Amino acid sequence: MAMTMEMETKEEALKKGIAEFYDASSGTWEDIWGDHMHHGFYDPGATAPIRDHRAAQIRMIEEALRFAGVSDNPLKKTKKVVDVGCGIGGSSRYIAKKYGSHCQGITLSPIQVQRAQALSADEGLEDKVNFQVADALNQPFPDGQFDLVWSMESGEHMPDKVKFVSELARVAAPGATIVIVTWCHRDLLPSEANLTPDETSLLNKICNAYYLPSWCSAADYVKIANSLSLEDIKTADWSDYVAPFWPAVIRSAFTWKGFTSLLRTGWKTIKGALVMPLMIHGYNKKLIKFTIITCRKPA
Ligand SMILES: C[S@@+](CC[C@H](N)C(=O)[O-])C[C@H]1O[C@@H](n2cnc3c(N)ncnc32)[C@H](O)[C@@H]1O
Description:
Residues 81-90 are annotated as: SAM motif I. By secondary structure, this protein is an alpha/beta fold. The chain has helices at 2-33, 53-68, 90-99, 110-122, 161-171, 197-210, 218-227, 245-253, 256-265, 267-274, 276-284; strands at residues 80-84, 102-107, 129-133, 146-152, 172-185, 231-237, 288-296. It has a single domain, classed as 3-Layer(aba) Sandwich (Rossmann fold), CATH 3.40.50. 47% of the residues lie in helices and 18% in strands. The mean pLDDT is 91. S-adenosylmethionine (SAM) is lined by residues 18, 22, 36-38, 85-87, 90-91, 106-109, 112, 135-137, 152-154, 157-158.
């Protein structure tokens, strides 16, 4: 009993931390990077000029849809979409416009919800997209609702990956596609029970700054998807395709606009900026893996 209460308190503290982190930092991110709060997808070896980063973020969405086999054919319509961990709604608006879908976004941050609604109204998309504060691990939707279940860089915040994927599968309609794009650690070797202490220590530093409670590997996600009888499970390591992203984020933090914006938003955002070089270190050591996992709920 005491143990359960302790876990609940820890989960609530985590959710509060995530909400406050994004309440504080989303404006700064939007000022500099726009409405997509995720990595870009680049050609390997590319050193993209700053104006190309938005195109790289759009390409990330397109590559993820293509990898998942989401059809562009208007006869196979993607009508209802849930955007789990929606940020300020960049993916929702893009997908709503691309497919004419109705997108429902959830995030822990009330400020993100307000901003997502405002940006969508500016684009005349109020009847196509909707956003609310809700927990991905306890989604406010009935079973079997959505043709596309989309999670772009929110999985790393989830304290319980089994519950996370179970909820994605629960709200998916029969035959629906589930797309998870997320940060993983490397797969363990058959001889290993854990990451090395150095690796764990590096990840812990990143976790503390970005409210990432527990990392897992792509192989762990596959195990979970299999245990839920999901079908067509595919994964890929896209770390090489996202390599220019963090150096570009760091460069943007050192512009006058980036620097003053960071100072304005306070310690949580500054702490996030300070660990950015550790992300590059983690990728270089082949410890952090930028991963896509896609699967389908049985029809
Ligand atoms: C890095 S942002 C990505 C935002 C968006 N998917 C995008 O690509 O622009 C992570 C998002 O996950 C959300 N998030 C984290 N944990 C969550 C949870 N338990 N339930 C709902 N949203 C969550 C955060 O509030 C934030 O909106």
